[in-house]
Design a protein that fits this description.
There is one protein chain. This protein is of the alpha+beta class and 137 residues long. Helices cover 19% and strands 39% of the residues. The chain contains 2 helices and 5 strands; from the N terminus they run E-H-H-E-E-E-E. Strands 1-3-4-5-2 form a 5-stranded antiparallel β-sheet, with helices on one face.
Amino acid sequence: MTPTPPPPGHRTTPPALTVGQVMREQRLITTDDITAFANLAEDLGRHHLPDEGRAMAHGLLTASLATKIGGQLDFIARRMVWEFLQPVWAGDTITAEVTVRALGEAKSGTRTELDIEIHNQNGETVLRGECSGVIRR
């Protein structure tokens, strides 16, 4: 399902943030997700093909769950660092936890630093990262 873009000129107000605040999103990763991402990114490496009946998700597909939160904040990333710790397989449910590490004034908005952890359904950390950028006014 393709998200419906807001009407022209429409601007949502990002939620107010506080240092230490944690935001969460969850998603079931499917074989269709992996196939669609492989085709979009043109990353058809065989390590993303089914293994024991399941396909391995691309690391950036896994990381994209955190960017969903960024989109809700109207966050423009300037720097991202990812550490991929374990594979995510088709059929896994992953949860992104994004924690506000720092906030400050920037010329174009609010300078924002975020810590990111993504866990699988077993509570295992599959991805750890951080990013910094700005939430524009």
